[in-house]
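Subject: lipoyl(octanoyl) transferase

B.,
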Amino acid sequence: MFYFLNNVVPPPSYDGMRAYNLGSRCYHDVLRLQETIFRKKIDRQMRYIRGDKSARLIPNVVLLVEHSSPVYTIGRRDTSNGIKAGCAAEVVKTRRGGGVTFHGPGQVTMYPIVNVQVLWKQCTASDKPRSPIEWFSSVLEQAMINVAGEYNIPAHRGRVGVWSDSWGDVAPRKMGFVGLQLGNWVSMHGAGLNVSNNCFTSTISLCARCRTKQRRL
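Prediction pasted inline below.
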């Protein structure tokens, strides 16, 4: 999941990149932590830009977590009509991009709280997208594709997110997703990759009218 670190050199003022493995955590606990870091990072950044050189910039932070209980998050593109009435999983409205996304045990979620514009400027790839947001979304997708490749699962970018390649008579299935929220070029929310969750049982099948086939590593 840290593929993009190989292609980006953060400026010295950002004191590098910090990654934290949070283990198995409740979605709300991690959301509160994200929001706290997000707000403080923007505040310090704006103070520094306005000339307060005593405002030490908060490093870019990446949180890795497995959410301990099933939850659906709804992005700005509200597609909550795809969630069945009486769903046992919690449903949470967020400010990220995208529609409805499932989180739960067996899925690795990565929350980068980083200055996307700074990282984009520091990227030396000659073919990088002109939009920092498009570039960062592509980087996160490529990270998941590379991880899948480590397990000999060919994957590609699909209609939305990362998909496994077709194999025999098995059609491509969705493995990963990206959904970001940005403020002053600082990101929160992020990317999720199905690792060992059973995507065909209980919570997903009972709660969502899924037209997208899911796959795990």
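The chain has a mean pLDDT of 83.

T.
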